[in-house]
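Review form for a predicted model. The reviewer records the input and the model, then writes brief findings.
Reviewer: anonymous (R2)
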Amino acid sequence: MYNFDRDAITCAYSDRPSLYNPATGLSHDTLSENAYALNDRLFAEGKPAVAVRAAVLAYLLDNAQIGTIPAQRYADGINAEGILTKLLYRRQNQVIDPALTARLAETRDARELKFILANPDYGHLCPDWEVLLNLGWRGLIDRALASKAKNPGHDDFYDACVTSYEAVIRASLRLADSAEGATTANLRALAERAPQTFDEALQLIILQFRVLEYIDGERTRSLGGLDRLLIRFWRADIARGVLENELSGQLAVFFWQCWSMKVPFDLPFYIGGQLSDGSDASNELSLKIVEVYSSLDIHSPKIHVRVASSTPEPLLRAVCDSIRRGNSSFVFICDDTCVRALTAVGIDEADARDYVPIGCYEPTAFGKEVGCTGNGGMNIAKAVELALNDGVDPLTGKQIGVSTGDPEGFDGFEAFYAAVMAQVRYALETAMELVSRWEKLYDQIYPIPLLSATFASSMESGVDALCGGARYNNSSLTCKCFGSAVDSLVVIRACYEGICSIGELKAMLTADWQGCEGWRAKFDTLPRYGNNQPEADELASRFSADISSVVLGKPNGRGGVFKPGLFSIDICHPMGKLTGATPDGRRAREPLSKNLCATTGKDKNGVTALIQSAAKLHLDRYPNGSVLDIMLHPTAVSGDEGLDIMLSLIRGYFALGGFALHGNVISADVLEAAQRDPKKYANLQVRLCGWNVYFVNLSHAEQDELIKAAK
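Model under review:
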């Protein structure tokens, strides 16, 4: 539909070394060597980390080679990728906290076996794109200088912000020198002022993202709400007489360029939803974005679709139609549930309404929160396993949980449930302690003036956004493999009620179910999570509420609080490899359940029952997000009636309290055919967990799981 040189843009990322002009700067190796030397010299001179980071960034932008700019592409070719990221992790190893070091050693086994996950999170960030588009780079500098004059004593921070954006402006001019035509004009204009046209706005976003993500090393996990951010430029250009098809072509180039970057886990942005005053944010660009994106047959960037009661039905139907035609790079997120979840951790309602989904599905207050949505969490299914074994991991014999006693001596299921919750509390409280200790070191390791300069609160306080300068300085812990844990608890409860003894169950697990198929089949007749069966769902509801209460609103190390999440993405596979046989019938080392899904193949009452089960999990107590994956057969959603069905599933789930929903419209037959003949199905997209992939690029085990889920 939109004519542009796709191959040239793709080549600009797949074969970048050949495009960099050696005459424009230092080689990557020399640049890296000099940057390391500059970094070490400045630290030796006693410079603060924020000043060092800005100085090294400026050196890289000033001295890196510049890439040739193919026609119709937004300029971003600066050969300085990865250097600051390596310096970050070297710096992390240099900054020592003896207490943290000791605790990391004490918890090493639990972390290596993925029972406990606890990391510093320097990524999962989103700049204030609205401020960037309103002020431009030069305006950010002016604001930082004005703030410095009003707030003495924070010169190092403000100077670092100015240094960073002066370097971005110089890089823009360097790129302009190697470009021609409209690209040169756009870059020179952006060096002087904020963008005024749709084309200029897209150029600023591309270059800003490239510098943030790949050169400064900040994991920038959203481009923001593109429909609300760009609509004024779209309308202004239309008023000036620019043809809509020309603007759509610019948007197509922008999407193709984002796709060609191959951003890990796909690059997100969002559309729709509500504004901070509660009014609807959708506009004519919302639908145009879906139209242009769907025409390109790509799966990155991925699109978060915020759904409020006021979200227009034509927009949602267009997204549903794109999904059923094979592009499943969309996730629906419920505004009502998100707002309740965010206000539960102290975020003002107006700020909560203006949330931005980060990464996969994690909401943060746009321009006001650094949510660090990937700090870690725990394997809930392993908490059940450890409660069965007095805190000992059965695959390795290592004591990685707390000692909760021999379950054969418990007086009933309630005592066992208490033991599971003891393991959960130990894992989550340990993770919170470790994360908080890491966070107290952020100002020495990883201040981020390039992002902080976009945050009004950092400009007012003179404090880096990652280091406590955001209005909301929150952290996250996400609980994983929930369905496997609930189904295991159902079986264990039946054992205490007399179906067999706990000792007999443990023997079956030790045997990895070998020779126990009769018992395995008998256990399979018990109620399962995901089938709208009260016996399982009431336990799941109680369990989810109890888990959330361990984390929700607990203080972190940056002056904020922890936000629990309830999703697993693809870590259910490596966690499964480290988990023994489980009471739900799963064999040792097989995958555990994903996100809010039922155990694979155990949701036998249809997608409506699955939705009803998931909606009972108190999802507004999980402000770091949750998501339900669904699988629909193409014949079930064909025609106009099929769109009605898809829309009713989305609206119905959200009316019940659902948080986020995504999935695939595909048949098991097609997946099996693709597994047999991958060349024939090279472009077959599947929604994996929080991003899209080509089915043929998955491991055989991952393919088998999707096939099993589709049957």
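Findings: The chain is about 50% helix and 10% strand.
Further findings: The radius of gyration is 26 Å.
Recommendation: see findings above.
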